[in-house]
Amino acid sequence: MGHLSSMFNGLARSLLIKKGRNSGNCGGREAADAMARAAKKNELILRSSGIVNVDGSNNFASVFSRRGEKGANQDCSVVWEEFGCQEDMMFCGVFDGHGPWGHFVAKMVRETMPLTLLCNWQEMLAEASVDCEFDLESDKKLNSFNIWKHSYLKTCATVDVDLGQHRKIDSFYSGTTALTIVRQGDLLVVANVGDSRAVLATTSDDGSLVWDVVSNQEAVQIVSSTPDQAKSAKRLVEHAVHAWKRKRRGIATDDISAICLFFHSPPLSSQQTHLVTKPIQ
Fold it and tell me: Which CDD domains did the record assign (predicted)?
């Protein structure tokens, strides 16, 4: 980990030099790839149903995905603890593919988006560090958010171009949503990207946010009342499946996936819970 940490610190210094040589490509991609390989080796990345619980971290993630009744499961997810070799950072996301190649598109975005985002974020930091008019410490949270915002915008544009140029995937008739979270210390950045089929939440008559068949209050109650945190995502998904069948009889169940993040240590009753889910459509 020490080697990768020094690599990460050197990334900022090398990016500005490499930027001019790579005509718009992130110069730190090789370093980001190396970080991803090391994270996978150290079991810091989860790309399937399961849990992420790293020693010494107060983060806990429960992940579960269930295939619907429409064919292959086109959902996929990722949780990356110590994102970019930073102990206070975490990345997670759920990707809902659609169309004949949707499952391939979703998996490709899952693999490329975190690395591209990490690379662009570090590039933005490097550029800000040499900008005499930019003062990160003056309003740290706001400036950090703006850096992530622009990093996300650049990342999504890059991933979209890469999909369009892929020779084996028809991304014109297929695509994916991308509902992701980055946690950096006390800062939580939520980004939702998708087409007309992507619905994160809808507004009811009283102004509250609800899913199609499970309300926010129900979701929080389900997660907070689950004794075993590791089973919280599975219980939430199973409840959503039952609610779908009860409220939408005769309509094939969609793929349903959830990531439940716990940001504080036990007891469970005092924990803050944030749900990253592929909403029911």
Answer: PP2Cc
pLDDT digits (tens, 9 = 90+) for 178-225: 989 999 988 888 888 764 332 333 445 665 546 567 777 788 788 888
Hey, what are 47's tokens? 């790309």
The domain of 59 spans 2-278
Q: How far is CA 265 from CA 52, 83, 95, 209, 270, in A?
A: 14, 20, 28, 27, 8
pLDDT at 172: 83
List the CATH number of the domain containing 178.
Answer: 3.60.40.10
What are the E-state strand segments in 160-208? 175-176, 178-184, 187-193, 202-203
Q: What is the mean pLDDT of residues 15-41?
A: 69
- pTM score over 0.85: no
Confidence of residue 11 (pLDDT cuts 50, 70, 90): very low
| Residue 63 β-bridge partners | 50, 259
Instruction: Give the pair of three-digit tokens for residue 169.
Output: 């995937």
Please give the distance of CA 239 from its chain centroid, rounded to a whole number. 23
Q: Give all strands of the β-sheet with 50-52 in edge-to-edge order.
A: 50-52, 60-66, 256-262, 273-278
Q: Are 106 and 176 spatial neighbours (Cβ–Cβ below 8 Å)?
A: yes
